[in-house]
Amino acid sequence: MNKLPENAIDALPGDVEIESRSRAIFRHACDNTDSYHALRLGMARRKAAHAGATRVTSRVWGPLASAAACCALVVGVVWMNPARQIGPAATSVSSTPVETVGGTPDEVTPEIGSTQMEIVQDLDFYRWLAAQPRVASARDRGAR
Amino acid sequence: MRETTDAEPIPASGAAMNAVAVFEAPIAAPGAEVSRPVAATIEAFLASVERRAWRIAEIALHDPDEALDAVQDAMLRLVRHYSGKPAEEWPPLFWGILRRRVTDLQRRRTVRNRIMVWTGRATNEDDEKLPAWEAPDPGPDPARTLASRQAHAAMSKAVRALPRRQQQAFLLRVLEGLDVADAARAMGCSAGSVKTHLSRAMDALRTKLEDWR
Predict the structure, then answer these.
(1) Given A65, B36, B96, B132, which residue has the most CB atoms within 10 angstroms?
(2) Dihedral sign for Cα atoms in the order B143, B144, B147, B148
(3) Is residue A51 exposed (0-12), middle (13-18) or buried (19+ Cβ within 10 Å)?
(4) CB contact under 8 A, B10 and A16
(5) ipTM over 0.85
(6) Chain A residues within 8 A (CB-CB) of chain B?
(7) Least CA distance to A16: which residue of chain B?
């Protein structure tokens, strides 16, 4: 018996059958997942859910903790340098060394490196500080 | 070339309609998506999808442990980056993440195989492995279970032989049941491309269905 080409094409399964067969096989395979892999999948899911919860918590507390740390840092800096607040008003010192012409040797700003710039900027404070022990020691002597 | 669409039913060939031998599954409408309820929480969504995701990754990777790693990674990424999204968006996002992860692993394996070829230590991926120990089957019909395993193995082999994009279209549209729009989002292409890839996949699989019976 001769078969027409279109009959040969009809003999092939259609999309409906392919879909239904593959879905049935797939569903059966999913339903019969072995206990080892099912357990590991459950563990992976719980781990992912836990990671999400941790992330949500850190998302809330992270910025707050950062802000608190910044505030603590600022308070700490202010706390550690109270002398700057109670000392004489710091005059602005030029960062470039300037030698005053005709001034006394004490008033001549020395040639310095960049690492000593902070000391120069606080020079007035150190002068004021150097004057303090004399006053304090004179008070002590007067008390005795 | 035939193209699978959402609305138009595809005429089924009558000759092969009596071929459901192992499973008495109802014949679904062509192109019909599997309607699944929207999960209330992301953990419930992951619980509903985990086994299918693992099976799909296993079909694509042919390695259950690598498939498990891919699914776990996809779960983590979904929860970390998209748990705030509406629940309706989780399926395409999850499948998109898993698809990219599987593709990465496939590419990595390709590179590794090339290196192994250069170093002369290549192995045939289709080599039969030693049979692993399996727990005794408590099911009532071992013959049926064996047949289903063989059918699954044959289907997996046929799907793995497809080009990557056709493979993804078949896995997402037919096995997972995503609609065209969600499959397109997961695949990162247009809806038309999804239809084209799926149509070609169907044509390629049509000749191999005999092995699944």
Answers:
(1) B96
(2) negative
(3) middle
(4) yes
(5) no
(6) 9-35, 37-38, 40-42, 44-49, 51-52, 55-56
(7) B30
CA distances from A92 to A111, A112, A122, A124, B61 (A): 17, 17, 10, 10, 71
- The better pLDDT of the pair B170, B206 is held by B170
The nearest alpha carbon in chain A to B70 belongs to A44
Question: Which pLDDT tens digit goes with each residue over A5-41?
Answer: 444 445 567 788 888 889 999 999 999 888 899 999 9
Q: Return the residue of B nearest to A42 by Cα.
A: B47
Range from A49-53, A112-116, B29-33, B198-202 that averages highest in pLDDT: B198-202
Cβ pair A25:B134 closer than 8 A:
no
pLDDT digits (tens, 9 = 90+) for B57-99: 999 999 999 999 999 999 999 999 998 889 889 999 999 999 9
Q: Are B97 and B187 in contact (CB under 8 A)?
A: no
